[in-house]
């Protein structure tokens, strides 16, 4: 009986961990998307100023 409760707890912990990772990953990918757009804007302004772009 005690062992079953422990496995149930580990399953809950596993799911909460997965949910947390998914949430972090989702917000991270959203940040990358915004960063890509900002970087494109910055590249355009750098091009206008005549700076070399790597």
TrEMBL record:
<protein>
    <submittedName>
        <fullName>ATP synthase CF0 B subunit (Plastid)</fullName>
    </submittedName>
</protein>
<keyword id="KW-0812">Transmembrane</keyword>
<feature type="transmembrane region" description="Helical">
    <location>
        <begin position="7"/>
        <end position="28"/>
    </location>
</feature>
<keyword id="KW-1133">Transmembrane helix</keyword>
<keyword id="KW-0472">Membrane</keyword>
